[in-house]
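Comment on this:
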Amino acid sequence: MQTPFAYFDSPSFVHRLHPMVKLGFVLVTLVVILLPYFPTARDYAALLLWLALAGLFWALAGIQPRRFYVLLKILLATFAFLVLVQGFMYRGGKPLLVLGHLPIPGGADLGVLTDAGLLFGVLLCIRVLVAVASVPVFVSTTSPGKVMAMFRRLGVPNRFAFMFVSALTFTDLIFEMWNSILDAQKLRGFDLSSMGMVAKLRRGFIPVVVPLILLLFRRGDELEIAMGGKAFGAPGRPTELEPLQFSWRDAVAVALIVAAAAGVYALKFA
């Protein structure tokens, strides 16, 4: 199974963009999803417009949705929870299903499923999906060397930049180690996937989590030795393996981001 959010090399349009352009897209996405939204056609259109831009970047980068299979399962469960909770707790709207009456402070009734609540729950799901879809545009298409070079251009201290890059790398490393440990335990006759939830909580995770922690400590020691061997923290300006330059691709991407942001603003406030 491929690890989500892992960087993969490709000569695609998005891979060759300047890291600051892709980081700017993620930051503007945060601004977009934090705007106040209501279950209206214009607000749905504003979010779907930005989601379409993220989908365009995914297509241009060649990001495969199957890499996020586990994450998609978690998101689907989260979306179902949000829709049901908002359906029963949202104030106002026409009742679709009446299970009883349990009024709560604020005017909502926990026993009544309303159409306005369902629509608001769907709106929250789209906001979460927009946020999640923007992250791979940056982390899956930008090499650690370019990320470090970008932070150096921004004046970020090397230690903080290294911590950020290491966090991205260790996330994928944990997924790889987890899968390797699961395969090794299956060869020993211990199949975690065949256990029920209660059995997993009682005794299933211990033979997997303990080796994972020990391997992470070992990998941390190896990383410390590698950092010392590469003179990390030495005075002077380090060299850049991948020099950063703005090109026509960056201008096109910035134009797309600005146009989409203007469209969201027009739909929301015009």
